[in-house]
Amino acid sequence: MKALDLIWKLWLSYKANTPSAEVIQNLLSIQKDDYFNDHIAFRTINSSSLKKERIAKIFLQYGWEIKGSYHFEEKHLNAIHMEHSSNIKLPKIFISELILEKVSVSTEKILSVAFEVYEQHAKNENFLSIGRKHSINYSDYQKLLNESEYASWLYIFGIQPNHFTVYLNNYPKLSIEEFAQSLQDKNIALNTFGGIIKGSKEKGLKQASTMADKKYIKFADQDLEIEIPSCYVEFAERFNINGTLFNGFITNSADKIFESTKT
Ligand code: NI
Description:
Elements: H1 3-15, H2 19-28, E1 37-45, H3 52-61, E2 64-72, E3 77-84, E4 92-98, H4 105-115, H5 138-147, H6 149-157, E5 163-167, H7 176-185, E6 198-200, E7 205-209, E8 214-217, E9 226-229, E10 232-238, E11 240-241, E12 244-245, H8 251-257
Bound molecules: nickel (II) ion.
């Protein structure tokens, strides 16, 4: 499989959890070989079998390289970003992981037990969109949600893209402010944590995102399905700093973007 085919396959699996991505694809007439995607984000835990380097390994095989690392103190996360070595039009990959040593014993235990089963899937070709392979309890979900929204999302959705990011530089007729307004006009809810537009031209990156779509989830200890936030769409507009396009991430902005899966 070629790198572009891998990305399109991930896009199709992500859209199944993200109806607003379909709306946006139609709005911008996005095609497979368009440079439409700034980055794809994954979430995981830092256990040996699932740590961010394990996910990165798959992208390394397709020509991506690790370019930056980040830390989110309050959310107990570490992250890296990758860029493709030869094809600028392929998206960057942003992989964050929850640091299990920093969360409560209860959260650590629920996630460690749930994710044990993934060890056998890590070499699977479809690992990046494998989703959830463990059974889930609403009581455990609530415990996780009380401590870490990130942990609760991971518990429900497993390993799959958390968001794609429309690269607005490829749509030069639209500023990020205008694009955000056009989505609001279509009644798509946007993430307002820290303001709709995060970052600035001076910092090299402006970002915004939808609030996650919702999905009905069946829990082992509940009769009725319960509606839970699934995935969201992010938007990015990048700017030059000292004559060079800024290709990194701003920790403070990303911290607010994480809130897009809040209930
Ligand atoms: Ni992002």
